[in-house]
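Throughout our pipeline, every protein is held as a single compact record rather than as scattered files. Such a record has a labelled line for the sequence and another for the backbone structure tokens. The remainder of this section carries one protein's record, kept here as part of the documentation:
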Amino acid sequence: MSTSHVGKILTLFISKNMSPKRATQAEIVLDEKGILSDKFYDKGIQRSVLITSIDSYDLALEHGIKMPYGSLGENILMNYNPYALPTGSKLRIGEVILQISQNCTICNHLSHIDKKLPKLLKHDRGIFAQVVKGGVIKSDDSIYLL
């Protein structure tokens, strides 16, 4: 299987029970049910991991909306924009293989940040992936398109 280096991991997040904010992590551990220690673990295999590109934050900033990383609900923030990848595409990060399952829908909580945000990021918020092969992903890991 050929691979192409496309980018790197900038920041990793998990959702903790009873906390509205994402917790920054140096690494995350994944298996076929999702991200261990994340409150959404084993809640929906097709939506196990939310991947967001730094481009989404840059687009918001271009429109005067400044927000901290993690605000879009992502688990993985990367410097590669995977939004145009077709469903079924695979990314390898460290030993982990993720398969793109669907585009992320816009959540109402984004309008709490700024009323323009849901419309602005309609197609640029992120993508969901399911875990094909588990393992550990660390900040600064390289991303490969398989």
Notes: The CA atoms of residues 107 and 118 lie 7 Å apart. The longest strand covers residues 4-15. The helical segments are 54-62, 110-113, 117-120. The two ends are 7 Å apart (CA to CA).
